[in-house]
Design brief:
Helices cover 30% and strands 34% of the residues. The two termini are 30 Å apart. The chain has 7 helices and 16 strands. Strand 10 and strand 11 (173-179) form a beta hairpin. It folds into 2 domains: 14-188, no CATH class; 206-217 and 254-317, no CATH class. The protein is elongated, with a radius of gyration of 32 Å. It has helices at 2-8, 10-17, 40-59, 62-86, 235-241, 270-287, 306-317; strands at 27-28, 35-38, 90-93, 99-100, 104-112, 119-126, 132-137, 142-150, 155-158, 162-166, 173-179, 184-188, 206-223, 245-260, 290-295, 298-303. It is α+β, with helices and mostly antiparallel strands. Strands 2-11-10-6-7 form a 5-stranded antiparallel beta sheet.
């Protein structure tokens, strides 16, 4: 209930947690950002100590006083160790590879102990999705944590709030802190499985052009250009005429395909169009075609390869978004 109230009042939550998201760079959990309260077991332990104290006072039991104060001292020492197990941890954002809608986004965080002692039993939880991991950090060591969160919308998906918690060593106190690093995952539209537009369907779904220059069959000679490879120079013809000539070759025609937003069926909505175009981008890349992408206000010239594929999918993911940065 308190968490839902704070979600409805982000300014109050920021003042309470001591930071304004997103947090850039390395975030250090200083002591004022670490909160600690007794657990349910801790409250039962405190009630037990109270009963022991009242009984020792009522019956004047010296051993009862000794036991009560010894257990109380152990509880106070455990509280200090619980807070120390979390304080001064440095949290920095890692990488997050792009995913498609419906797939889990893998947010990577790096945790640095920055201390000469171990930090065992640290719980790292993604507040939005509930994904969590328990890790240990060695002395002056660094640990990587991967939190999975479902990607439900295309575009930039921020990591949101992450909670770090520990109940080490006695389990009677719970210390926790929140961070919200500057880390976002690019979410592509969910690709729709559909065949590529046929070569002859220029008026319907795309345009197909043929590029005939290749390196398979000899087709003739032309004048030498500075960009020509020395292997293609016709040296015999040069020896006869004293004129630099270059061999020309033809090869297998390669398809140049345009994937055009305007040529999709008008009955499709925006997200359906983006999904179909994403499916076509993947299919064209698998087929080895040279393909270009046309969107309202954006045109990517034909190319192929992982970089071109990523550029096309990013354009689809950010279509209609305000700004291109997370």
């Amino acid at each position: 209930m308190i968490g839902a109230f704070l979600d409805r009042h982000p300014r109050l939550a920021n003042r309470l947690y001591g930071f304004t998201p997103p947090e850039r760079g390395t975030v250090v959990l200083v002591h004022r950002r670490v909160y600690i309260v007794p657990t349910r077991l801790g409250w039962l332990f405190g009630a037990t100590l109270l009963v022991l104290l009242v009984g020792s006072i009522n019956y004047a039991l010296s051993l009862g006083f000794a036991l009560t104060f010894m257990l109380g001292g152990m509880a106070l020492a455990g509280m200090v160790h619980t807070a120390r197990n979390l304080a001064r941890i440095a949290v920095s954002a890692g990488r997050c590879e792009p995913v498609f809608v419906g797939d889990p986004a893998q947010f990577r965080l790096h945790l640095q102990g920055r201390s000469a002692f171990d930090r065992p039993s640290l719980l790292v939880r993604h507040v939005g999705s509930g994904s969590q991991l328990v890790v240990d950090i060695g002395p002056a060591a660094e640990t990587q944590v991967v939190l999975a969160a479902p990607a439900t919308r295309r575009g930039w998906m921020p990591i949101g709030r992450v909670m770090l918690e520990t109940r080490f060593p006695l389990g009677i106190f719970r210390a926790w802190s929140y961070v919200e690093p500057e880390l976002s995952c690019l979410v592509y539209p969910r690709p729709e499985r559909s065949p590529l537009p046929p070569p002859s369907a220029e008026a319907a779904n795309g345009a197909l052009a043929l590029q005939t220059p290749g390196n398979e069959d000899f087709s003739g000679l032309r004048g030498y250009q500075l960009s020509d490879s020395p292997r293609h120079v016709a040296w015999k013809a040069v020896a006869r005429s004293d004129k630099m000539l270059t061999k020309q070759f033809t090869g297998e025609a390669s398809a140049e395909l345009w994937l055009d937003w305007q040529l999709l069926p008008g009955a499709l909505g925006v997200e359906q169009r983006l999904s179909r175009l994403a499916g076509w981008v993947l299919a064209a890349e698998r087929a080895g075609a040279h393909y270009g992408l046309r969107l309202p206000g954006l045109e990517l010239p034909p190319a192929r390869g992982p970089a071109h594929r990523a550029a096309c999918l990013k354009a689809l993911a950010l279509h209609g978004a305000e700004g291109g940065a997370p």
